[in-house]
Amino acid sequence: MIARSMQGKLLVFAVFFIGIATGILSANFYRSHVVTDMDARPNTNRAQDHLSPQDRAKRDQDRFANYLGLDQTQRDQVSKILQETRGEFRQLREKVDPQFKAIEEESRTRIRAVLTEEQRQKYDKFREEHPGPGGPRGRGPRSPDHDSDRKDKTDKP
Question: Are residues 46 and 38 in contact, defined by beta-carbon separation less than 8 angstroms?
């Protein structure tokens, strides 16, 4: 019984970790291919391309509601559900982030161990110049007021 429970937990963690890895890869692909292509095109109306995360989320939520044909009561209910879910995801992220960062750091240490001194210097320089999604923290940029349901806005996310 306990082994089954542990297997279930490991499966959930594996799926979560694969989701994170997929998200990181997708974000890198998007930034390196799509954003680069957008910068190369003629100066078109890019106002929508530079929306804040809150405005983008609101726009996407409105599109979703319009697509489904939700009335105002349903829109309010869906909005409340999404707000609660955002808080749950934040709690989970805060719980799992230290483990994720430890794995990430161990991976970097192991990579550096197989490199020559010259390669390590290049690797370190590359890591400084290409810190990953959102900078050295490894996550997309977040402003302190990013989440409207955040209780203590002075803490870092």
Answer: yes
> Mean pLDDT in runs of 10 for the chain (157 residues)?
79 86 84 65 55 87 90 92 89 90 92 93 90 54 43 43
117-129 and 72-113 are packed helices; what angle lies between their axes, rounded to 10 degrees?
160
Cα–Cα distance for residue pair 137/157, rounded to 1 Å: 11
Question: What is the Cα–Cα distance from 62 to 18, expressed in whole angstroms?
Answer: 29
- Whether the full predicted model's pTM is greater than 0.70, yes or no, is no
Q: What's the one-letter identity of residue 32? A: S
Contact 49, 36 (CB under 8 A): no
Query: Is the alpha carbon torsion for 17, 19, 22, 27 positive or negative?
Result: negative
Q: How many residues does the chain have?
A: 157
| In the chain, alpha helices (H) | 2-29, 36-40, 53-68, 72-113, 117-129
pLDDT digits (tens, 9 = 90+) for 113-144: 999 999 999 999 998 888 766 455 444 444 44
Token pair 């499966």 is found at 11
